[in-house]
Write a structure and sequence with these properties.
Low-confidence stretches: none
Order of helices and strands: EEEHEHEHEEEHEEHH
CATH architecture of the largest domain: 2-Layer Sandwich
Number of helices: 6
Shape: globular
CATH topology of the largest domain: Nucleotidyltransferase, domain 5
Strand content: 25-35%
Helix content: 25-40%
Oligomer: single chain
């Protein structure tokens, strides 16, 4: 199984190229929140490190959200383009899967800061137990009270920090049988954009 996976949904861009053995992971620091500027270079670096070409990939994977509205669109558009250019299928994983599978044991609550004291959240045990939702701080506290360990790929008060790039790799490996045509990729938006909310 060979693949290229990208996550542009959050502050930290992650690219994973895998050709057996150890995954090649690129998380550029120079492009925080500038994913459109650094993504193609990060893809090139990951592919070279894995000694993998685009033509060698069996599929291309992308984190479809929730997260940054613009970031999600950048990742999906890039992966759709690669799939169509190479005649390969796509694989969608959620940003919350990438967090959850970075910490693969126990009951865990994957969290992403959604701003204004709210969060994107999903709870996991052996698998997904509470599906992705837009939650208030009170909602999150209720889930923590049910025994879920709060985890995040970003600095969040009260949450254990995990490696989202490692989680991306693990989430893709877990879901590799669930590929789809590139045109079936769609963003997971759990709330309206800031522009829509401001209208």
């Amino acid at each position: 199984m060979n693949f290229l996976a990208v996550d542009t949904s959050g502050t930290q861009l992650a690219v994973v190229a895998y050709r057996g053995g150890t995954p090649s992971i690129v998380t550029p620091k120079e492009g925080m929140r500038e994913h459109s500027v650094v993504l193609m270079d990060a893809i090139d670096r990951a592919l070279k490190a894995a000694e993998l070409s685009l033509a060698d990939c069996d599929f291309f994977a992308v984190a479809v959200g929730p997260g940054s509205f613009t970031g999600i669109r950048i990742g999906i558009a890039t992966v759709k383009g690669l799939c169509l250019a190479c005649g390969r299928p796509a694989l969608a994983v959620t940003s919350l899967d990438c967090i959850a599978y970075a910490e693969e044991s126990g009951k865990r609550l994957a969290l992403i800061d959604a701003g204004h004291g709210c969060f994107y959240a999903a709870a996991y045990g052996d698998g997904l137990e509470v599906p992705p939702a837009f939650c208030t701080a009170e909602d999150v506290e209720k889930l923590i009270g049910m025994g879920y360990l709060p985890i995040s790929a970003e600095e969040l008060a009260g949450a254990k920090r995990v490696n989202g790039a490692e989680g991306l790799y693990k989430a893709v490996c877990r879901s590799a049988a669930n590929t789809c045509p590139a045109e079936a990729l769609c963003a997971m938006y759990l709330r309206k954009s800031s522009a829509e909310e401001g209208r």
